[in-house]
Design goal:
By secondary structure, this protein is of the alpha/beta class. It has helices spanning 42-45, 57-60, 73-90, 105-120, 137-141, 146-149, 196-207, 231-234, 258-264, 282-297, 299-320, 340-352, 376-390, and strands at 18-22, 25-28, 35-39, 97-102, 124-128, 160-163, 175-180, 210-214, 238-241, 252-257, 323-327, 330-334, 354-355, 357-359, 365-368. The chain has a 7-stranded mixed beta sheet, with helices on both faces. Strands 1-2-3-13 form a 4-stranded mixed beta sheet. Strands 11-12-15-14 form a 4-stranded antiparallel beta sheet, covered by helices on one side.
């Protein structure tokens, strides 16, 4: 059926409509001979292990719980696994952490900010130019892009202070939280200065503000076999996870220090002030459990895959005179030309059947989110396609 029944603007003009996905490929066109495309977008990095979803009978037949009223076994296991993993990476006691299983990255950031506002009793927020944290509610209040914010400026809180990326601002005791991406993702995979996150931690401590890591894109294995890049150096109070944390199943999570969660949330007279019908639903919980298990058992595979992509991309970027940014399985190539990333992504898809994501504040770059399961032959295919598309 034609896509004309969908809201306008939610797909690129002339782009194919995909009909299937398997492993590291997506397909478009009719059976029996659909056209395969090597997928280096992986649903904006959500499918770290490819398109083969980790669904089993335990998840499909699990009790669903009832929102904020009644839990269920998979939800309990997922919350425990999240806390165990963060505690391990920070060398903390697992009892020092609490978690909540959700669905989208925006939902995770929204929940984290609400937690910080309630725990501190303050209303100030600090965020960074170029940062992207989602387009829903309070997540939009800390997302910098004018294209997302301007249509709704009357509805957005005015308590956000903006700082340049990589600059630690002097804060006051009115600040409840600082929201920061360990790597700025949508801006084109922009790394932080080496000292930035740890000094940000110090400034938060000075004024009693909470540090929130938005690791929705760069966490859960995308930038290495950790929950969140640089977590140990900056010791955040709250970590937001999404995308790869579900292993292809729609899932997100907030992991918070126990004292922060305790200060923020209780049932109130009847119910908590923040809730959702499908908190911790079985599919999201199962996806999170699969992801954390894979981080534990397949960390060496992630490291090797990241090193292989770095070795492939560095000489291509150098030969083309392009800037390469990234780590692990998250890479951006910057053409240096506004809109050049969109043109390059189109050539790669149309001429070479390789799918990447245009990125950068001015559309100058492409971002690659390869699956850890890409084969040597698929890397060789990219090594041939990229220089031709750049040429």
């Amino acid at each position: 059926m034609s896509a004309t029944f969908e809201f306008p603007g939610f797909r690129l003009p002339g782009a194919p409509t995909f009909t299937g996905a398997l492993g590291t490929s997506m397909f478009y066109g009719a059976l029996p001979t659909p056209t395969p495309v090597l997928d280096l977008a992986m649903v904006f990095g959500s499918r770290l292990w490819g398109h083969d979803l980790p669904l089993d009978g335990d998840a499909l037949g699990a009790a669903p719980g009832v929102g904020d009223l009644y839990g269920h076994e998979l939800r309990d296991k997922a919350c425990a696994a999240l806390c165990v993993r963060v505690a391990q990476e920070l060398h903390d006691d697992v009892t020092d952490w609490r978690s909540l299983v959700l669905h989208t990255g925006s939902e995770a950031v929204e929940t984290a900010i609400k937690t910080a506002l309630r725990a501190t009793g303050r209303d100030g927020m600090v965020a960074f130019e170029g940062g992207y944290h989602g387009t829903f509610g309070l997540a939009l209040a800390v997302t910098h892009g004018a294209q997302f914010r301007d249509p709704f400026w009357r509805q957005i809180p005015t308590t956000t202070t903006w700082a340049p990326w990589g600059v630690v601002p002097a804060m006051t005791n009115e600040v409840a939280c600082v929201v920061v991406e360990p790597w700025q993702g949508r801006a084109g995979v922009i790394p932080p200065p080496s000292w930035f996150l740890s000094l940000l931690r110090e400034e938060c401590d000075r004024v009693g503000a909470l540090l929130i890591f938005d690791a929705v894109l760069c966490g859960a294995g995308r930038t290495g076999a950790t929950i969140a890049e640089a977590i140990a150096d900056a010791r955040p109070d709250i970590v937001c996870l999404g995308k790869a944390i579900g292993s292809g199943i729609v899932a997100s999570a907030v992991v918070s220090r126990a004292e922060v969660a305790a200060a923020a949330w209780d049932r109130g007279a009847v119910e908590p002030a923040h809730t959702s019908t499908s908190i911790g639903d079985p599919l999201a919980s199962a996806g999170i459990l699969h992801s954390i298990g894979a981080l534990q058992s397949r960390g060496a595979e992630l490291e090797a895959a990241g090193a292989a992509w770095q070795a492939l991309l560095e000489p291509i970027a150098e030969a083309a005179g392009m800037q390469l940014r990234g780590t692990g399985l998250l890479w951006a190539l910057d053409t240096g030309t506004p809109g050049g990333g969109m043109q390059l992504a189109k050539r790669l898809l149309d001429e070479h059947r390789v799918l990447v994501v245009p990125s950068g504040l001015d559309g100058s770059s492409i971002t690659l989110y390869p699956a850890a399961t890409c084969s040597d032959l698929e890397l060789e295919r990219v090594a041939e396609a990229l220089p031709r598309a750049l040429g």
